[in-house]
């Protein structure tokens, strides 16, 4: 037990170092920091146009008021911020590491290979506007949907958000790992990342088949839909349990797949 | 003239070389179209009206498909190359040789767009004719309108070229510009009607957009084909397109003149 505790502390410390170095390099290239925020603001405006149109239509959408929709889109914006700040840049670099053989460098390090290659780069600039904007939207949506602010609601909302991050990690890492076989994955990356955008609108607008596929097979709807659905009492008991179990199931699957894929690594050049 | 035909051919070859890339870009349109399809289906079912914000269901779906494809077609990208030329001093290569930078850029851009225009037009032609054959459209997509559309789209592409060409002069004043270009692209995709039809945004926003050239890039050509604009409206729209092209042409001349005075040819 103490061994696990020691290991966790060690990895937490290393993650803190990743964060520190990312911040240092951001400060060195300040213009990139500003541009990162600027571009994300542009994306937020695009997401807001959807909300604006929903308000212009002014009607309930499948029982959701425009303010309910704001709650969903706010959560989606927060998750976009977390995904692009903590994970995205690591994931797109992975095929590059495999192609050039630079993965060798990391293999020799006395630390989990999956940990260092998938979590090393952190870019705070993209998170700042998304998290500020998203939290404001969630607050407005929460308030105008007349949802009580109590411990159970806050824990449920934040809990499903954190579980969403774990699911995000799993389902967007899998396509990148195909690079162990195919080397280049650009097309696939674009395609799998556009799956993320299905959360642009509440999952209830899709037909039953898509909802099932997006919940159980490729669980994209678990990323940002379960937090607001929990608040709006839109989750059945089965869905609540699945929302908690699925992130761990997929995380274990990714771990198994990682170990399997690594055996196909042949290095390059040299 | 021959050197510019060469630049045109280079652009054309470039587009043909990276054809898979463009096809993938077109395929990636499917998801936003799907999301909007489900959004509008739900809105129309929930509301129970035949019209929402001035559009019936078929019209909005046709709009979504056309807008997604058109905004990929009109997209530029040479502004990044221009700022690289300025930053690395490559621009001086053009200054000492008997070749006009503007003529070079526009010929290579048009060369790159030519095969893309053909592909996108073909796709749209197939989609629109099969839609009007299989589902009853409130507004007829007539052959005459389709032909007019095919004439208007190249003008839109040209208009977007001039917007980007003006924007590209920013690199004379700023060392790093990618964030501004990228954000500008995102905002212009909204302002040109690439995501939702502009008339859905309400009167106030449209009053602002009326003063800007963006609506003539995507929104106007689609209104030509979906029958929302009467013929005299189309004619005055085309006139506005040419007016904007002329204005932006003059502006780009001015900006390039001012920019060249600051150009230092670093590295080169």
Word description of this protein:
The complex is a heterodimer of chains A (270) and B (268). In chain A, helix 2 packs parallel to helix 6 (124-144), helix 3 (66-100) packs antiparallel against helix 6 and helix 3 runs parallel beside helix 7 (151-177). Chain A is mainly alpha-helical and 270 residues long. In chain A, 78% of the residues lie in helices and 0% in strands. Chain A has one domain (2-262). Chain A has 13 helices and no strands. Chain A has helices spanning 2-28, 30-57, 66-100, 103-107, 113-119, 124-144, 151-177, 179-182, 186-196, 208-217, 221-224, 226-231, 237-262. Chain B has one domain. Chain B starts with a helix and ends in a 6-residue tail after the last helix. In chain B, helix 1 (2-17) crosses helix 7 (101-134), helix 3 packs antiparallel against helix 4 (57-74) and helix 4 (57-74) runs antiparallel to helix 7. Chain A: This is ABC transporter permease. Chain A: It comes from Paenibacillus monticola. Chain A: The chain crosses the membrane at residues 34-55, 67-89, 122-142, 154-174, 209-228, 240-258.
Assembly type: heterodimer
Rg of chain B to the nearest angstrom?
20 Å
SS strand fraction of chain B: under 5%
Structural class of chain A: mainly alpha
Give the overall shape of chain B. elongated
Largest interface: A-B, 36 and 33 residues
Biggest sheet details of chain B: none
What is the rounded distance between the termini of chain A? 42 Å
State the distance separating the first and last CA atoms of chain B: 27 Å
Q: From the helix content, strand content and strand pairing of chain B, which structural class follows? A: mainly alpha
Could you give the order of the helices and strands of chain B?
A: HHHHHHHHHHHH
Largest sheet of chain A: none
For the record, the count of structural domains of chain B works out to 1
């Amino acid at each position: 037990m103490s061994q696990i505790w020691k290991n966790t502390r060690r990895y937490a410390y290393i993650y803190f170092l990743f964060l520190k170095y990312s911040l240092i390099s951001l400060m060195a290239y300040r213009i990139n920091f500003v541009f990162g925020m600027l571009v994300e603001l542009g994306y937020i405006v695009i997401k807001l146009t959807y909300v604006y149109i929903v308000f212009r239509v002014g009607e309930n959408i499948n029982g959701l008021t425009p303010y309910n929709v704001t709650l969903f889109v706010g959560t989606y914006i927060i998750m976009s911020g977390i995904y692009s700040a903590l994970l995205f840049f690591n994931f797109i670099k992975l095929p590059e590491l495999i192609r050039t053989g630079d993965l060798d460098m990391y293999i020799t390090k006395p630390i989990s290979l999956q940990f260092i290659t998938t979590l090393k780069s952190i870019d705070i600039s993209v998170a700042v506007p998304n998290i500020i904007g998203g939290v404001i939207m969630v607050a407005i949506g929460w308030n105008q949907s007349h949802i009580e602010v109590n411990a159970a609601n806050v824990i449920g909302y934040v809990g499903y958000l954190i579980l969403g991050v774990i699911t995000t990690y799993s389902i967007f890492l899998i396509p990148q790992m195909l690079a162990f076989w195919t080397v280049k994955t650009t097309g696939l990356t674009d395609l799998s990342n556009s799956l993320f955008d299905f959360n642009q609108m509440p999952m209830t607008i899709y037909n039953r088949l898509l909802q099932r596929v997006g919940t159980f097979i490729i669980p994209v709807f678990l990323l940002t839909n379960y937090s607001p659905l929990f608040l709006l009492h839109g989750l059945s008991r089965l869905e609540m349990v699945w929302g908690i179990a699925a992130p761990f199931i997929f995380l274990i699957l990714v771990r198994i797949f990682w170990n399997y894929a690594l055996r196909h690594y042949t290095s390059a050049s040299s | 003239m021959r050197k510019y035909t060469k630049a045109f051919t280079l652009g054309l070859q470039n587009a043909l070389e990276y054809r898979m890339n463009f096809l993938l870009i077109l395929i990636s349109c499917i998801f936003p179209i799907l999301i909007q399809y489900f959004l509008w289906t739900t809105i129309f079912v929930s509301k129970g009206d035949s019209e929402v914000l001035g559009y019936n269901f078929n019209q909005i779906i046709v709009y979504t498909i056309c807008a997604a494809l058109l905004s990929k077609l009109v997209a530029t990208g040479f502004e990044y190359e221009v700022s690289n030329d300025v930053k690395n001093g490559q621009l001086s290569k053009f200054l000492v040789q008997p070749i006009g930078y503007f003529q070079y850029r526009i010929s290579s851009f048009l060369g790159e767009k030519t095969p893309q225009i053909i592909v996108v037009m073909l796709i749209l032609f197939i989609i629109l004719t099969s839609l009007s054959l299989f589902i009853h459209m409130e507004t007829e997509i007539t052959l005459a309108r389709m032909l007019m559309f095919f004439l208007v789209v190249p003008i839109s592409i040209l208009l977007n070229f001039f917007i980007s060409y003006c924007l590209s002069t920013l690199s004379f004043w700023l060392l790093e510009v990618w964030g501004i270009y990228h954000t500008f692209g995102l905002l212009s995709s909204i302002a040109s009607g690439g995501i939702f039809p502009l008339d859905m945004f309400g009167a106030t926003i449209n009053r602002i957009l009326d003063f800007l050239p963006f609506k003539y890039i995507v929104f106007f050509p689609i209104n030509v084909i979906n029958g929302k604009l009467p013929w005299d409206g189309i004619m005055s729209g085309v006139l506005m397109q040419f007016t904007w092209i002329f204005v932006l042409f003059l502006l780009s001349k001015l900006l390039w003149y001012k920019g060249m005075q600051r150009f230092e040819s670093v590295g080169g």
